[in-house]
Amino acid sequence: MGFLKRFFKNVFRDGHPHTTASSFENLSEDQLEAHMQTARYGDFLLTEAVRPSFDLQVVPTVGYRPDVYRDKETGVDIPVLMISASREQLFDLFLDLLDPLGDEVDVVLETSHDRDSRGHDDLYREHIDMPVLKSTLCDFEEQILDDGCMGVAVLNPGIPLEVQFDEHKLLIVYGQDLSGFERVLEQWAIPRCDDMRFITEAEHVHSSSDEMARSFQELRYRLGLDEGFGGDNHGDGRDEYTWSDR
C-alpha cells in the first residue's frame, strides 16, 4: 500500500470522513511525502509528531499567547499560556517550565495509540519527586518530542499549577499566577504575541509508529503507571501511521 493510500486510510478512519474538504485530498503521493518531510519553516523546526495543513493555514512560529480556560464544572476562568517553540529549544524549555511547580508533583501521561478507539486515555500518578521525574523524562526525550500520539502533563494540585507538553508539541500552562512561567519564557526569549495562531487551530497531521507505542509503554512502566491502559494493541502491524485532525 502506498503512502498516500495509507494516509487516507487513517484520515477517514472507521468510515467517518471529515465533513469539510481536506487540503490533502487531491495531492499526489509525491506532494504528500514532500510535505511530510518538510520540518523547517524559516527559523522554526518542527518535531516529527505533527505537520501543518498542506495549504499552510497556520505557519509554525515561535511565541506565546495568553488565554483563558473556563472550567465547565465550576465555571471558574483559569489563565492559560499557550507556547510554541522550535524543536531545538522545546524539550529544555519544557523542563525549565516545570521548576515553578515545586519539588513534588503529579504526572499524567496522555495516549491515543489505541487507534481502535476515539479520544485518548489519561494515566495518572501522584507524588513523584521532581528530580526523578525530570531524569526519567530526559531518558525518553526523543519519544516525547516525536510521538504524535502522546502528551505529558505535570501539575501541583496544591498550588494549583499545571504544565502540559501536548501531543501537538505545544506547551500549555494553567494557573492563577503565571508570572513565574512568564519569567522563564523571557529568559528563553520567547516573544509574546496576543494574536498568534497555533497549529491546533487549523487542519494538521499527526504521526506515530508502533515502535513509539512500545516506547510509550516503557515510559509508563518507568513512571509506575501499571494500570488503566488498554494493553498492547497498536493497530494492524504497520510500523508508521499518520492521520489528519482539525
Distance between the termini: 25 Å
**How many whole angstroms does the radius of gyration measure?**
18 Å
Topology order in helix (H) and strand (E) letters: HHEEEEEHEEHHEEEHEHE
How many domains? The number is 1
Q: What's the total number of strands?
A: 12
Give the overall pLDDT as a whole number.
84
Percent in helix: 25-40%
Which stretches are poorly predicted, pLDDT < 50 over at least 5 residues? 1-18, 228-238
Shape: globular
Estimated share of beta-strand residues: 25-35%
Question: What is the number of helical segments per DSSP (H or I, 4+ residues)?
Answer: 7
The neighbouring-strand order within the major sheet is 4-5-10-9-8-6-7
Major β-sheet annotation = 7 strands, antiparallel
Secondary-structure class: alpha+beta
Q: Any descriptors?
A:
246 residues, alpha+beta, globular, disordered N terminus
Question: What this model shows, in words?
Answer:
The chain starts with a helix and ends with a strand. The chain has one domain. The protein is globular. Strand 1 (40-41) and strand 2 (44-45) form a beta hairpin. Residues 1-18 and 228-238 have low confidence and may be disordered. It has seven helices and twelve strands. By secondary structure, the protein is of the alpha+beta class. It has a seven-stranded antiparallel sheet with strand order 4-5-10-9-8-6-7. It has a three-stranded antiparallel sheet with strand order 3-11-12. A two-stranded antiparallel ribbon has the order 1-2. The protein has helices at residues 3-11, 29-37, 87-97, 130-139, 141-146, 179-187, 210-222; strands spanning 40-41, 44-45, 50-52, 63-70, 77-84, 104-111, 121-129, 150-156, 161-165, 171-175, 204-209, 240-245.
